[in-house]
Specification:
Structural class of chain A: alpha/beta
Shape of chain A: globular
Structural class of chain B: mainly alpha
Largest sheet of chain A: 7 strands, mixed
Number of domains of chain B: 1
Helix content of chain B: over 70%
Radius of gyration of chain B: 26 Å
Low-confidence stretches of chain A: 1-8
Order of helices and strands of chain B: HHHHHHHHHHH
Largest sheet of chain B: none
Largest interface: A-B, 34 and 23 residues
Order of helices and strands of chain A: HEEEEHEEEHEHHHHEHEHEEHH
Shape of chain B: globular
Strand order of the largest sheet of chain A: 1-12-11-4-10-9-8
Distance between the termini of chain A: 9 Å
Low-confidence stretches of chain B: none
Mean pLDDT of chain A: 89
Number of strands of chain A: 12
CATH superfamily of chain B: MetI-like
Number of helices of chain B: 11
Mean pLDDT of chain B: 89
CATH topology of chain B: MetI-like fold
Number of helices of chain A: 11
Oligomer: heterodimer
């Protein structure tokens, strides 16, 4: 980071501190458009004192791709991990506020988190296939949830791998270890594994940041095909990627949701000073 | 050129490079010498024991009873006692240490209590085995009234073994990257399912290696057993399955001298004329077993890893 941007970054932070509430622009979802997930005034704290998300209210349209962008540490990944309640696994992490999935609050004490995660799948930054065969990587989850029928699983493995555009590359080696695949193939295997659970929503946490440009392109193409059947919410550090794949974009800054709207509009005509500074590279 | 050398002349820079190369060579030489020295000493010890004892190993020696006064005794009961004690010790310590290690690595909250427990386990793992033996003598042999018995010995060995096994298993589990656990949880598996089906298979090679290596330690342990399992090897009958009969090999309430205790016993208070022969033969057999344990640890660990991970 150059001297100049650093100073400006500081200025922006100072500006935020002064006003406490930065100017925001959140496009509302029109009546009648179905939101599959929604958070209402979500707050998240680490160790009861450090607030990492501040009053985030955001809706996700069904069968669209929404990108969460913003500088490092802005809370976009933390926000994503609230949506499938993964943050409940982190000690000393507390988050409050309704998280609606198909209109029902899942951020309650008595909700079955394991059931929630079957419907809201997740793909991680680091490709993380299990140390099992390619076949087992896909069949494992459904089998653990009681689908034991061999024919069903065989077919599920095939269709999931086809959906993830990996079938042709691995169909003759389903018994091989997933670790023998390349990074990009491993990530597509992780996507196939998530699809095999027949989820509603797929959360992706910087899925391409560990991959080369060709693998990245393949996964972006894949996402475009997947949105027919799934709602995708993707965290990305790469603004070009957001522009390429996302229908809607949400911009986060130090735990605040600053701007949300149609991707093309946001990038060509940002409504808030923070987003326009971010897009012009005045801070990162 | 001037900037690259940070202001030094070319000659100064050359001298510097020559000096760096020389110290690199010296370091390599010294480190190699250390490793060679250690290897030579270890090979010499193992070689001395095996070469010295191997000629005395015969089918008769390995199967017959030991003698108290005459020459020509064997180590049959001691071999059986060693393996039986090992088996019972592992039967108790594997489930306990697995449970403790899983709890400590996956479930325990990260706080001072957990840190304290981990410190205690580390301390216990360096407890001298004679202390464990005397503690076992007071508690199991005298207070519980179990006498010098296989049971007292097996529980004392478990105490001796448990802390190290917990640490090894815990380290194997912690070596599995956190994102593997996340992957399981994100598929809607419970923490227990994730541990059982993802973490343990991935850590299995390390866990099994740890178990087999600690089996080698238990197998060769003497001090913890002298005052718990006792120093006598009564005549035993392998086919007698009446667990209350003192002559039954399987009776856990009978005293049972092991190989390592036998070596200590004949050397310290033996009155047989062939002490050297018995001690050397027993030591060689013990050493061969431990070597086999170690080779098996590598082989089995590797095979199981291949099998569960399809690699």
């Amino acid at each position: 980071m150059s001297m100049q941007t650093e100073t400006q970054n500081k200025e922006t932070l100072e500006h935020l501190k002064d006003t406490q509430a930065p100017s925001t622009y959140i496009e509302q979802i029109p009546e009648g458009v179905s939101a599959v997930m929604e958070t209402q005034g979500l707050n998240l704290f680490y160790n009861k004192t450090k607030q990492a998300l501040k009053d985030v209210s955001l809706s996700f349209r069904r069968n669209e791709i929404t990108a969460l962008i913003g500088p490092s540490g802005c809370g976009k990944s933390t926000y994503l991990r609230c949506l499938n309640l993964m943050n409940r696994e982190i000690p000393n992490c507390v988050f409050e506020g309704p998280i609606l999935y198909n209109g029902k609050d899942i951020n309650t004490k008595d909700v079955d988190v394991y059931e929630v995660r079957k419907h809201i799948g997740m793909v991680f930054q680091q490709p993380n296939p299990f140390a099992k065969s390619i076949y087992e990587n896909i069949a494992f989850g459904p089998r653990m949830h009681g689908r034991k029928d061999k024919n069903y699983l065989n077919e599920l493995v095939e269709t999931s791998l086809k959906r993830a555009a990996l079938w042709d590359e691995v169909k003759d080696n389903l018994d091989k270890s997933a670790y023998e695949l390349s990074g990009g193939q491993q990530q597509r295997l992780c996507i196939a594994r998530t699809i095999a659970m027949k989820p509603d929503v797929i959360l992706m946490d910087e899925p391409c940041s560990a991959l080369d440009p060709i693998s990245t392109k393949k996964i972006e193409e894949l996402m475009n095909g997947l949105k027919e059947d799934y709602t995708i919410i993707i965290v990305t550090h790469n603004m070009e990627q957001a522009k390429r794949v996302a229908d809607y974009t949400a911009f986060f800054y130090v735990g605040n949701l600053i701007e949300y709207g149609n991707t093309a509009n946001m990038f060509s005509n940002p409504q808030t000073p923070l987003l326009s500074d971010y897009l012009t590279g005045r801070f990162s | 050129m001037e900037t690259m050398n940070h202001g030094a002349t070319i000659e100064q820079r050359k001298a510097q490079i020559a000096k760096s190369k020389r110290s690199d060579k010296i370091a390599t030489g010294v480190l190699t010498a250390i490793v060679v020295l250690i290897s030579v000493v270890l090979v010499a010890i193992v070689g001395y024991i095996i070469v010295g004892g191997l000629p005395h190993l015969s089918w008769d020696f390995l199967t017959s009873e030991s003698e108290s006064f005459r020459a020509g005794g064997g180590i049959g009961p001691q071999i059986f006692n060693s393996f039986y004690l090992l088996f019972l010790t592992m039967l108790v310590s594997i489930p306990l240490s697995l449970g403790a290690a899983i709890y400590l690595s996956q479930y325990a909250p990260q706080n001072k209590v957990t840190d304290f427990i981990k410190t205690i386990i580390e301390t216990l793992s360096s407890l001298p085995s004679i202390v464990v033996g005397l503690f076992g003598y007071l508690l199991f042999v005298l207070y519980f009234g179990w006498g010098f018995s296989i049971l007292s010995g097996a529980i004392a060995l478990t105490m001796f073994n448990l802390p190290i096994m917990v640490r090894v298993i815990q380290q194997s589990l912690e070596a599995v990257p956190a994102y593997q656990r996340d992957a399981g949880l994100a598929l809607g598996l419970t923490r227990w399912e994730t541990t059982l089906h993802i973490l343990i298979p991935e850590a299995l090679a390390g866990i099994i290696t740890g178990i087999i290596l600690s089996a080698g330690r238990v197998y060769g342990e003497a001090a913890a057993l002298i005052y718990t399992a006792g120093q006598t090897a009564p005549e035993i009958d392998l086919l007698n399955f009446d667990l209350t009969d003192p002559r039954s090999a399987w009776n856990v309430m009978r005293p049972a001298e092991t190989l390592a205790v036998h070596i200590w016993k004949v050397n310290s208070e033996g009155v047989i004329p062939d002490i050297d022969v018995v001690a050397a033969g027993t030591a060689a057999f013990l050493m061969i077993c431990v070597v086999i344990f170690n080779i098996a640890a590598r082989f089995i660990g590797g095979r199981i890893h291949k099998k569960v991970t399809a690699q």
